[in-house]
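Troubleshooting: if your tokenizer reports a length mismatch, compare your output against this known-good record of 455 residues.
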Amino acid sequence: MKRKALVALVGRPNVGKSTLFNRIIGRRLAVVSEVAGTTRDRLYADAEWGGAAFTVVDTGGIEVTEGRSTAPLSQDSEQFLPLIRQQAAVAMEDADIIVQVVDGQTGITAADREVADILRQTEKPVIVAANKLESSKLWDNAYEFYELGLGEVFAISSLHGSGTGDLLDAIVESIPPFDPDDVEEDESIKIAILGRPNVGKSTLLNKMIGEERVIVSPIAGTTRDAIDEKLRWHGQDFTIIDTAGIRRRGKIDIGIEKYSVLRAIKTLRRADVALLLIDGEEGATAQDAHIGGMLIDENVGVIMLVNKWDLVEKDTHTMPAYEKKVRQEMAFLSYAPLLFISAETGQRVNKILETVMEVQEARHHRLSTAELNDLMRDILAHHPPPTKGGTQLKFYFATQVAVAPPTFVFFVNRPEMVHFGYERYIENQLRERYPFPGTPVRLLFRGRSDDRKKE
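Known-good structure output:
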């Protein structure tokens, strides 16, 4: 399955990027506020227009000049100000299409010009959306923004939706064509290393490849780029990717940190298995759970690694108790293997690749139609399907239609009667017979008359 195009909404703070994001995806997902810099976490969602599917990413405002910042900066942002231009340019390389959102009522500002300076460094399609033009009488204001020297300018109102259809038409027309011949054959298992800043991702990468490939620093947020490393182990090729740390909600700085997360999302789109690092001294946090949710969204395999285990005071009961607590905090990843490691000392690091291979094998495991339907007969006999309004949910036939992740289609009489609890029951029973370690499984329910199209 080819990856969807990434459309990044960029611009200075308080120009309406989050409102436009909500308008494009068709639901209120991004937090919207009149206070500059409200968007403090990366938001992304799939969208569709004119039969074309793509992923849109909402970002925070880019801060580019110390003397002319458009919103208050944290001390950490000021520390990295000299790098923001460079890192914003790198971020532009990660998006397929870029939409610079500007305030059509305010007109061009110095910050708009500096953002445009960054965008002119990319060869990717760039579109300008002159926002907040709620009245057609104001649409002529959009012409001023051609002065930025970027792509076509569209007069829009994200609040009311006017002009956004033309903008979406332009986005769809700009989606680069996909040529299978341009994709290099790579049989390696691709591993993404993810986790909060300063949890030991770069140290783990160094230990796994046996050399100091990545600069390791105690300053959270040191790694900004995704870095690939090739590794061969027991005849199997691996590509290991180190990614920027993902901070907890409310702690992501405007600009540079945003795009680090955008890169992490792009990394997941080409990963087979993700290593989710958890700080052994701090335990599983809400942000670890947030990252875990991202992994589920992208349908990648998952291995949880409790790092810095050498620093934890322990006795014979510590590890079982710790695992129980992590499992409770990350219950939605109950299928993920969990290893206790020390990237610094190398403790159990040698178990990681072995576990990755097990997860990759599970991701590609395929059940025959006969054994799946035999299993379903046992599952349904043990716990019959629910009944509603005198009608019982009936299962006719089941088949596996895809791998990576394993995807199963169940043909039933009333798909809407398959509630969450019964779906979870089927998955649990399926995993009891075939554990599928480390990989999500997808269960799809269709009526008898549904077309059996590929997922």
